[in-house]
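Repro case for the chain-ordering regression, as requested:
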Amino acid sequence: MFKKEVWKEIYQSIKAHKLRTFLTGFGVSWGIFMLVLLLCVGKGFKNGVNNQLAGSASNAVEFWGGKTTIPYKGLNVGRSIQVTGDDMADLKADIPVIKYISPEANVTNAGTISYGNNSGVYDVRAVFPEFSQIEYLHIGEGRWLDPLDMEQERKVAVISKKIEDQLFHGKDPIGEYITIKGNYYKVVGLVAEDTTRIFNFGSESTIYLPFSVYKAEFEPDGKIEHFTAVMEDGADAESAGHKIKKWLARKYSFDPKDDDALYVYNRARNEKVVGQLFSGVGIFLWIIGCSTLVGGVVGVGNIMLVTVKERTKEIGIRKALGAVPSSIISLVIQEAIVITTVSGFVGLVIASGALSLIGKLTKSVTYFQHPEVDMNVAISAIIILVVAGALAGFIPARNASKISPIEALRYE
Amino acid sequence: MIRLSNIYKSYPVGKERLQVLKGINLEVQKGEMVSIMGASGSGKSTLLNILGILDQYDSGEYYIEDTLIKNLSEKKAAHYRNRFIGFVFQSYNLLSYKNALENVALPLYYQGVRTKERNKKARNYLERVGISEWAHHLPSELSGGQKQRVAIARALVTQPKMILADEPTGNLDSKSSQDIMDLFKTIHNQGVTIIIITHEKDIAEQTERIITIKDGIITN
Ligand SMILES: Nc1ncnc2c1ncn2[C@@H]1O[C@H](COP(=O)(O)OP(=O)(O)O)[C@@H](O)[C@H]1O
Ligand SMILES: [Mg+2]
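-- result from build under test --
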């Protein structure tokens, strides 16, 4: 970029002014380091949280049956409200805004589940095939439950990696039969392990069955404790949730205002709050990062001012020997550019190192994922500091280059 | 070589202007070695700075050979300083972080001379002033006399039309002073025009002509 002698001039000047160079460089490195670190840590948290949220449909409302606490139409309080699997289809038919709906019914007293000589105790959960649109389960091998399984009440099961390890010891489980309460169930699918999520609702030790089989084998009334409805994209989950509750209140005769008769949890609302929190944190980190950068700019500017002042006599000498003003200006600016650029990249490299260390240390922390360096941001920040340094050097250097040599020489 | 007619120069002091040079008329021939004497504050340095194009004058005319040195652009001024003049200061004015060789080579840098050529010339001039073995020493490692030799080599290296020296022996002991004067005489014998400011009579007497300045006027 520069001629060899320019490099030499810069090198000599830097060597002669080690402290000044260090201070400028440190200011820039620190600014870049902090900025990159802040933004990346912010990003890491954001990635982590997004990952959590991405694990399940967000425009969803969950329901649990409870006990009435408000008298209704002459009926007593304390009645249990138990929804059934058949309600699901009716709800979907009556409330079109429901996109997916699925019960989650636990087989109580499922006991030990075995394959050959191996056995273990696991959650056995009956769901609709569309449950995979509510909780995003990754199918590693085989397939997920399908409508035919439901229709034909096939005794099939989808198991998790953990169960595979414990029951099959490395043998391919697909097509094998496990025993649940004395009945054989054919394993058709394997849920891949998903370590990135905290809230996996115990899915790692869960066996999923078609709901129709559950109804036929374990619960003829099809009663359920819990179900989840995902609303159409863009639909208001809150009001859809109210509609569902009203519908159930009419059917099961309880007061729609009775919060304890049917517990309602609006996932969308909570995710919105978390999302807002994190965009707030993001903005806060940006503000701190920018302040750090402004601090760096001011620091570089100050040091350049001092540098030029300190070099006024040298400028006088150089002018007396025949230096033109432009050579004086470029002397100062080139040095500033070299120092800020090099230290900017030093800061970036150190920050990257720190981040990869942080990344390694927090690998298992689910709410902190991929704290990557946004190179565009980092490079822009360096450019800002380099330009600021060059500008801050330019103005005093131009002034100093204009004063007469004898005046500059008189400067001590 | 140079011709000054009716040069006036004043400095602003508060709201007043201090008139320092009050109509200087002077001619110095090519190859001459002259000294300028005068009391402290009489305007010697002011005059030499004008001769060296380090400062501007208010009125009058100053010619180097046939070039009028007046209201020059920064670029032109730099060019003439570099090509016409070698300036030697009382306080040496070497760049502290450059070694002797690099200090001597610096004016050639501003001429755009290539590094190799520059160092060759600089070494040659260090040899001429007799301190080539100190080429790679920083000014802080040199004695006053040695520093002034480096400064003289730096003034000579561009082969200027004249050497201007403002009390070049002012900071030196008498032995070193004489060595420097001997050096100037040698240079002069090689045909270089030299103007030296001094307030020491025995220094001035070693030149061909003494110009006396008093209250901003040349009196002889
Ligand atoms: N930059 C300046 N501003 C104001 N007064 C100055 C300046 N330079 C020199 N002078 C004054 O001008 C006069 C002549 O100075 P100078 O030429 O340095 O004298 P000499 O070199 O003969 O001792 C002195 O009175 C000095 O104080
Ligand atoms: Mg003087």
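Ordering looks correct now. Confidence is low (pLDDT under 50) at residues 196-200 of chain A.
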